[in-house]
């Protein structure tokens, strides 16, 4: 049994405590120094102007002493909470011994491989291979592209509209966001995109699903998309996170698996944001009962934010040779120790069930708001990955409303994030250790802010 504290004892507080302006004087100083020296690629402080001093569980403390409830978990990284002692202490012990081992075997590395294999979806446990390459999820995507091309001998790759897979050239090529890609073309050739099954303009979920599947059938059979032959693989997020927390209709992944298998096309499921218990199962693929040919994992697998990613795939696809996918930091053993400890902690404290139960509460609170907030047009998600979509009466996205909600929540001591190409979706992905009290307090803040902002918008203020 983990000897670390139970989830309710991990946090700095059960409620926020904002005593200084946002940003406070010390945060302002650090933000200014950062802006003067770091690249323009810095993004998060533009929306959340604070400088972080420390974090515990589902709480963050800034350098001015303000304490925030964290409903973003470092964008899905801190699933077992910030600085979870059960995870951190083991990582420190490993750091004292050795940190960098490239890909030489260590007990810690093999223990993590076994732990990750044991929770893999479908029939992958006992029938998988794991490739480490680099520290971020986009490295795992790059590995999966190489894996698919090598095993099939084909060059075409297929992603979904509004999908997001990372910032390197292969991952950008797969992503369906033109705003991320337009300044960096040309990207990879032989790339096609098909619509994610999202009902539009009164379309039923079943109709949206069938339309998507028909396009997929055309692409994999070589009848459409501009590819000269069937593709090497199809990459899919089981829930589109950055794209707006889009949950596909029931049966989508299962149908996709059948189509790809029938045409000898690999199905690669991107579990970078949805993995490690985020949706109430170890991986979102588990909800559909499928076995992907490969899956990419990152974010939370490093336990408490230590950088680590991997590509997990069927054993029979392990046909490539030494250094086929390499990387200097594929031996970050403290992160592997942290990953093993995180899996143990999630299992011991049944955080999959907690994610399901607390996530249902958060969605219920949003649905209560819908009764008096016509611009809150949809609430969706699984477990502790939740999106609330805002549009005006004409159906136009309301990114300014969501931005205002995020800003005002921060002033009240609550960190939330956004999603969607238009930025009109409020996204919640708190740590799985979020307590019932924190969930209630946080949603009280969200409800109060949403009511205020939408009333002001309706009044034209």
UniProtKB/TrEMBL annotation:
Tagged with keyword Transferase: yes
Region of interest (Disordered), ranges: 1-26
Keywords, ordered alphabetically: Aminotransferase, Pyridoxal phosphate, Transferase
Cofactor: pyridoxal 5'-phosphate
Database matches in CDD domains: OAT_like
Alphabetical list of Gene3D superfamilies matching this protein: Aspartate Aminotransferase, domain 1 (3.90.1150.10), Type I PLP-dependent aspartate aminotransferase-like (Major domain) (3.40.640.10)
GO MF term list: pyridoxal phosphate binding; transaminase activity
Ranges annotated as spanning the membrane: none
Pfam families found in the cross-reference section: Aminotran_3
Family: Belongs to the class-III pyridoxal-phosphate-dependent aminotransferase family.
Protein name listed in UniProt: Diaminobutyrate aminotransferase apoenzyme
Organism: Halobellus clavatus
